[in-house]
Amino acid sequence: MQNHVSDHPVTKPQRIGLWALLIIVFLFGGIVEYRSAYLTHRRTDADIFFRSGWGIRTGRDIYELIDTQGWHYCYPPFFAILITPLANPPPDADRTGYLPYEVSIAIWYALSIVALWFAIHWLASTLEDHLGGTLSKKPAAGCVRWWALRIIPILVCLPSIGRTLSRGQVNTFVLLLFCGIGIFTVKKRNTWAGVCIATAASVKLFPAYLGLYPLFRRDWKGVAGCFLGAFFCLAVVPLVALEPARTVDCYRKFANVLVAPALTGGGDQSRATELLNATGTDSQSFLVIIHNTMHPFVRPDHAAPWVRLVHWVLSFLITAVTLWFGRYRRPEDALYNILFLGTLIVAMLPCSPVSHTHYFVFALPLVMALAACSWERNQAAVLSKGYLILFGIHIAANVLSLPPHMALLKALGLSFYGTIILWVAGLRELKARGEMPQAQAVVA
User: Fold this and answer.
1) Is the pTM of this model over 0.70?
2) Strands (E), 110-210
3) Alpha helices, DSSP H, located in 187-277
């Protein structure tokens, strides 16, 4: 077999680039620490996460607590229970027994970086073990291709990774669970794949959508894992930590202030201005993009009823199309199954009524799968020219959405359009791989 340049050890300039990336991680951590802990107005979502942990420890109503910016906790109680070691009391409360807030922020950032790297490395290692194609071979650890399969997804998703880390969001931990779905599926530990789906949905509710992944594949062990994971995360953990009466109260409140308003526009509207209104956040959902396109300059707070209807119609269509392209049963084809999962994750994002721009970090498994597809076809390089252009467009669209003076482009869905092209590429690869003879697609 020919030894291609991409299988060589990294060169000195490439090593310098890797060290530079590591230095950027530390420098960015300093910026996040300053923005989150030392400004008068803390620019982070971690503040309300830590405040909810304090609420769990002190018996307060976690859905009535607010952070220093007046924001409310918006997740199921499971995550608030997990975050209690980093709990942060209100300014006027007794801090005895609590970590300094600055230390909690530093720990949260460090854990987020660890989760991100472990998700990427774990998924890349799994793909390397199972890639098919007559010319493919597993790269040596530390060679150009080994690093490329890990660094390319980071670079392509860097704008949304930066948004996630700067806002102290929980996305890298959810991303780790998303990668776990594909990895456990490839390794035929399907029950654990379902547990990953349920755990992700117990942190951020909308990943429950991914229950379609095992269901459509008729993976009944995966479906069982979803139920087992949901029972443990949503019932057992809260019942043990909160006791039955408080658990029931938490779920009743969560349904009234978040689930009902997000899905139907009804229920308690106390979270409307900070989250649920069409003008509340930089959402990239179908609903908000259509609303903003209809009203580019002066926008009503609430979308018209027909816009909400169109949102659900488009959500159904993008889901149906994704499932159609993923209809081939290829249990032995690792890359096909991760491609299907990646396209389904990207299809999920605009379906959620609230879909922040930092959610596009969840496109990372699809980006890695597309890079692996290019690897199989082109042994001289990890990425083909076509994928270089595709990923460049995605990066440009998300970078252009960052500056404040580009807020109109972001409101009109530039990040969404720059990401949906990845979904289209994923469908194309699914079709090509699904029509490929099984023996050609799989070389275990």
Assistant:
1) yes
2) none
3) 190-203, 212-216, 220-231, 237-242, 244-254, 260-264
